[in-house]
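Researcher: Last one for today. Full complex below.
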Amino acid sequence: MSDIRVRFAPSPTGKVHIGNIRAAIYNWLYARHTGGKFLLRVEDTDLERSTPEAIQTLMDCMEWLGLDYDEPVFYQTKNVARHLACVEKLLADGRAYKMEKTSRDGKTGEVVMFRMPKDGTLAFDDIVKGHMEKKAEDVPDFAIVRSDGSPIFHLANVVDDIDQGVTHVIRGDDHVENTFKHLELFRALGATPPRYGHLSMIVNAQGKPYSKRDGAAFVGEFREQGYLPEALFNYLLLLGWNPGDDREVLTRDEMVALFDIEKVHVTAAKFDIKKLQWMNGEYIRRAPRETYRAKMLEKLREAGYAPEEGPALEMLVDQMQVRTKFWNDIPAMAAPFFTDDYPVDEKAVEKRLRKPGVKELLLDLASRFEALEPFTAAAGEAMVKELSQGGGMGPWVHPIRVAVSGRGEGIGLFEMCEILGRKRTVERLRRAAAAL
RNA sequence: GGCCCCCUCGUCUAUCGGCUAGGACAUCAGGUUCUCAUCCUGAGAAGAGGAGUUCGACUCUCCUGGGGGCUGCCA
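Model: Here's the assembly. Have a good evening.
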């Protein structure tokens, strides 16, 4: 146990950006590594966007990624009275003053401004960026209450951090400059400021902040596309930190044990979807067979298929696990085993079936499969080996594969036949022959 | 414009002054195999540029260049 308290403080907008969730991941790992507390604060002051649905989306993302928090959710809107009470104190102490101001969008009214020091230097030691320093004159006074009386981010954020007892603020790089302001607010409010650490941004190939137009940018999109939460978590973690050796695929326990906030990188990292994809495949391949099997059944049922228990299903599980890149690929990959209405790749048909002699070959093979005893992958393979007389099995294997599955690639051909069973294998061979 | 930050293979990175600069993804070439995938082997691929400090610099300092952040009654 330690008395470290960190928080993830997103404003719910309906979507959770990967850069944002990475901040959550780093906070979570820091808390778990140090035995501190990980808190969730929902900065829901934008009533337009902070709908119950948006908040639910946020919670779903956190749960999906296994980011559990240690205290009840703190809603910023519930703390407005405290925010304003703090403003009164600042006003009374002369650290804040009222002023007539015109906003960017032309609104004129009286706002409350926070008074920053006018000379000297402002400085702090950032956990990831090191010593940061600025001349006080470069950080002007700033508004903390709008003309409609509502508290502004800087104020609310700091007061909430005080109220939640936050000791370390790990947040995005876009807040670095704000830190000079926030530190002054803490002191003016008579509170001990937390330590700050700023995380570099995740950028696109052009070095710009990674956004929607660069591809999937929100957690929900990765989830929909069939990525594993463990893979996304692991990949995002590696984007800016590594254990110091060559390990890359880490278990959650290893991450917690090895994570070191001091070793987080300062430089922006480009998001490489290819590596995430590789990692996703890695996680699927390394998953316990039971896990894969359960997920496969779930995906098949979702697709409207009715997988039946039995040796054929088990063989299919074994054959598919190593070939699956995304959960969502499963239904298409397995379609030929659950419906006769599977897609047919015309190119494969052209290449493997529309050739002289293939029709006769398929009819001959259909008869042989009909007589094959037992009807197993091993027996099928032995049979074709026999036919090929030591030459390659290609001339037999390729046409059979296209005839029974409609595709030129896929799981082992003989396993495929065994899974389909004698009846369907023979039917499809004859059907393909008839179509030629 | 001003202020702040950053700069090792295409990408993520290792290197705490000694480097024949290592790993992973991606790429390419082999091997295994009925295809695909897996798996195995191998190859190419980097210190932004220039000064300085030092016996020695990717590592330290400075300048230039390039990139990014901030500069709101957004967060």
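The mean pLDDT of chain A is 94. The longest strand of chain A covers residues 96-102.
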